[in-house]
């Protein structure tokens, strides 16, 4: 073994060498060494897939909730006699949005 250009020697004067291991191709590695790596990669891929699917599902739920709120606002304000192009209809839907916001704030304050 070279250290500062010199060969290290045992007390008996023999040169110390470190056996070199040849790198084995992956195809020759025993399954017991490959299996944990493959299992970890599979788990990581499944978690990534679940994350992507979960985000898409949450976006779909949010869009459905928004559409439902718009429909409820429209039905309520039209039942009061406001036309959709009328300024009073806009004030009606804006008022409902403000009421929902205040209700959500109240709920958020009660949840620890």
Main sheet, how many strands, which sense, barrel? 2 strands, antiparallel
Please report the number of helical segments.
Answer: 2
Gyration radius (Cα, Å) is 35 Å
Q: Helix fraction?
A: 55-70%
Low-confidence stretches: 1-5
Structural description of this entry:
With 112 residues, the chain is mainly alpha-helical. The protein is 65% helix and 4% strand. The protein is built from 2 helices and 2 strands. Strands 1-2 form a two-stranded antiparallel sheet. The longest helix is centred in the middle third of the chain and has 49 residues, at 31-79. Residues 1-5 have low confidence and may be disordered.
Provide a quick synopsis of the model.
Helix content is 65%, strand content 4%. With 112 residues, the protein is mainly alpha-helical. Helix 1 crosses helix 2.
SSE inventory with pairings:
Elements: E1 2-3, E2 6-7, H1 31-79, H2 87-110
Antiparallel strand pairs: 1-2
Helix pairs in contact: 1-2
Features:
112 residues, 2 strands, mainly alpha
